[in-house]
Amino acid sequence: MTRRTAQRTIAGPWSLTTSRRFWEGFAPAALPGHDDEEVLATTFLNERDWTPATASVRQHRESAAITVTGTGDLDAAVAQTLRFLALDVDATGWSAVGTRDPIIGEAQRQLPGLRPCGFHSPYEAACWAVLSQRIRITQATGLRAALIRRHGRDGSFPAPARLRRLDLDLPGRKTEYLHAVADAALDGLLVGEHLRGLDAEAAVAAVQAVKGLGPFAAELVVLRGANHPDGLPHHDKRLNAEVTERYGTTIDEVSERWRPYRTWAAVLLRALREGCTHEIGTGGHRVD
User: Fold this and answer.
1) Which of 77, 166, 188, 238 gets the highest tally of CB atoms within 10 A of its CB?
2) In whole angstroms, what is the distance from residue 87 CA to residue 74 CA?
3) In what order do the strands lie in the sheet containing 51-60?
4) Which of 92, 89, 49, 28 is closest to 227 using CA atoms?
5) Contact, 3 vs 67, CB < 8 A?
6) Sorting pLDDT into bands at 50, 70 and 90, what band is 287?
7) CATH of 2-92, one of 3.30.390, 3.30.310, 1.20.1510, 3.40.50
């Protein structure tokens, strides 16, 4: 086991405290509690070699101190940590979105410094999309936890090569679809660096080629798995309802003013909705 520490200057607003609180309530992959409130700590699969890694992140004003440990490529682990915390995005223009759109501006004030975070990788997001299809969020969370407990390493999700070999007793075609997701990850499709290198719409189209991943799932993989900053979810019914309530129109009508942070604006609106409705936190049905 080796350790690497890196210091990175973050461009634009960021609050580790706000982001950590958001992720702690993120039902699909909730961040575990930590005794030190000034640290965000998590365990994940390093996409470069699919080995377990841990990351601890602290904020020092405009910079992030990231310490990663593991047996694999730790430079890649640092880069992945920056990506799944959206710290690799230049957000100096993010405040201007709130100026153009007062509703987003108010959301920014309510959730200061929030950057989208959640899934460690597109691979883990795709696995969640399969597990959560047509069952309640609480059930899917239990299935995910059991996979980590029985087949993961050091608290990380099972690596694609291992997942591909498992004969799992899961509802419907979930095992078949998980195997397809594992194959796509091993082929390099469900990797953050690859998907972030594509236009968001092209990335979503590519992900839909994976068996079992429809439009809603593909958007989740790209926008919350690869953490693409400027994509637009068209198949999130809860988000569409929130946009209709706040704007009285469709997401296509209002989202142009959010560029180049359309994903961020969408996540902000969903976070506000969840704070009011607790649809996910109470185990609501997954919407496909």
Assistant:
1) 77
2) 17
3) 2-9, 63-70, 51-60, 39-46
4) 89
5) yes
6) very low
7) 3.30.310
Q: How far apart are CA 46 and CA 55, in angstroms?
A: 11
The ranges assigned to domains in the chain are 2-92
Q: How many CB atoms lie within 10 A of CB 244?
A: 12
Return the H-helix or E-strand segment holding 55: strand 51-60
Return the exposure string of 151-176: e unless at least 16 CB atoms fall within 10 Å of the residue's CB, then b. Answer: ebeeebbbbbeebbebeeebeeebbe
Average pLDDT, the chain: 92
Q: What is the pLDDT of residues 66-85, one digit of tens each?
A: 999 999 999 999 999 999 99
Collapse the DSSP code of 46 into the 3-class scheme (helix H, G, I; strand E, B; otherwise coil) and give the result: strand
What confidence score (pLDDT) does residue 34 get?
57
